[in-house]
Thyrotropin subunit beta (Nothoprocta ornata), 134 residues
Amino acid sequence: MSSFFLLSLLFGLAFGQTASLCAPSEYIIHVEKRECTYCLAINTTICAGFCMTRDSNGKKLLLKSALSQNVCTYKEILYQTALIPGCPLHTIPYYSYPVAVSCKCGKCNTDYSDCVHEKVRTNYCTKPQKLCNM
C-alpha cells in the first residue's frame, strides 16, 4: 500500500499541472470617464480557472520546489484600444485594455496582474451603455 501511495504522490507532483483548468475566459469591462456621455461595455478575455497547488501542511515531507502556490495568470497578452463615445474635444476618448491570448499556471507577476484578492467590486455603469465587441 505504501509503494502505491508513493508512486501516486510522485505522479501527482510530476503531472499535476496537466490537470489544471486555467484558460482565457470571456469578461466584460465597463469603462466610463466623467467628461464623456456614455459608458462603454467591452467584451474581452481574462485568465481564470483552477491551478493545482500544493498544501504547505506537508512541508516537512516535501521539497520546497514541490510546495507551489500557483495562480492562473497571463502567458500571452495583446492590448487593444477602444474609443469611448460621447467625449468632448478636450478629453482623450481612448481606453487601452488587455486581452488574454493564452494563460498558464504560475507565480503571480505584479508587473501586469493584481495579485491581491480584494473585496468583490461591482462592475457596472452609471451612465448609458454602449457595447463594444472587439
Q: What stands out?
A: Helices lie at 2-15. Strands lie at 21-32, 39-50, 71-83, 94-106, 129-133. The two ends are 55 Å apart (CA to CA).
